[in-house]
Design a protein that fits this description.
alpha/beta; single chain; 7-stranded mixed β-sheet; about 25% strand
Length: about 550
Amino acid sequence: MQVADNFIHTIIDEDNVTGKYGGEVYTRFPPEPNGYLHIGHAKAICLNFTTAEKYGGKCNLRYDDTNPVKEDMEYVASIENDIKWLGFQWDKLLWASEYFETMYDAAVELIKKGKAFVCDLSPDEIREHRGTLKEPGRESPYRNRSVDENLRLFREMREGKYGDGEKVLRAKIDMASPNINMRDPVIYRIAHVTHHNTGDKWCIYPMYDFAHPLEDAIEGITHSLCTLEFEDHRPLYDWCLENVGWWDPQPRQIEFARLNLTGTVMSKRLLKALVDDGTVEGWDDPRMPTIAGLRRRGYTPESIRDFCERIGVAKANSMVDSDLLDHCAREDLKPKVESRNVVEDPIKVIITNYPEGKIEEMEMENNRDDENLGSRKVPFGRELYVDGADFMEEPVKKYFRLFPGNEVRFKGAYFITCNEVVKNPDGSIKELLCTYDPETRSGSGFEGRKVKGTIHWVEASTAVEVKVRNYTALMKEDDEGELVFDPDSVEEKICYGEPALKDSRPGDRYQFFRHGYYIADSKLTTDDEKVFNRIVDLKSSFKVKK
């Protein structure tokens, strides 16, 4: 496996040499509980937890629950489940809302130092005053209120005297700063809503850019790993800590490129819209890029961790080929799962010279790459099913499977020759009449003539009916190159499988011979109905770089 360089670890190594944090490494994964985590979050999870592991440090799970309007405990449960499923365990489980009193005190500290003021401008007026990238902003007419007045107004904001949007607390920095984030940003707003953790205790809530650095500092985080969109916010991160002045040394924010995956939407807002309008089955729809969706689809935690390791940690945004994720899944599943015969678009085969009523058992290996997975008995008889793709009445050039007059090997069984095609009144194929050569039984030491084609099969009387769901990408490009939902991203088929599949339980994974890797769906598979999701097909166009 090729592991990409990690510039973050280089920075941490340098800090350890200087002794900046006494050799300690303390990270955190700080999701907002406003949706299910997706594959992009998996990258952040792996980075934060494996970085702590590498240096013998710790990693917290901290819920950034400073916006009660969008948060839900359903998301909290899903986040914890996802992290554990990926194989990680946090040091402490914390809530940003536990620090609300400290954050309030920090805001009061800024007011006392003349570094923050209560502003009465509306949100639209604040935007109008902000300026542009080419023009400086204009100072608020409330910017020069006295410390005492600001302290009184901020206290009254907390007491609930004012309505939503009526007042905000802003940091007093520089309205002419070339970084718009430093132009007197709002650090507290009024929101009269019930919070899931603090109830109705608070009606003012800190903004993320103010809360984030304080949360890190309170917890003693040494290296705050963020995605690249927070790079322009780093000066504000540092300003808040320096001007509150309570922590030394301060946490160090380091930005890395977020994961962009071809053909994949990485926005919780857009994914939530697909869930809310019923376009998909839910957050765990097997087509969704959520960790819950990938888990239900059948990806293993090992394959996702391998994927995150391979893509590495970059300083600039780029697009990652989604085929790499599928490649990692194949690499992980290939030596692990057992093989089963399943035929799609089944065609019945009758072996006319095979004894009626006879059923014999053929020995088949479960995994050609690992003999320790053993073998199984597969019944063979007079009437069988073969895959629709394995027969052509008028074969094309270099087609070596079943067609009239041709002989093929039925995998693990005998040489079979197709003699006649029987059709229904509508012209569709009813059955194929074939003969077998009893001297060609697999495992009998037969070393006679060669055939070019080998196909799989299922004995008809013992076949198990299964539902197979084959997936393509959830999104496709429209004529303008925008990603839109693809209504044809799932194809359901009724197939026939060998009887061993009858005992399948939710979560069981197999290689369906020549079709791909599949998992018994965790929600739909029952004792009476077997539903399998295709994880990935068998062939990959992805080329691993040497």
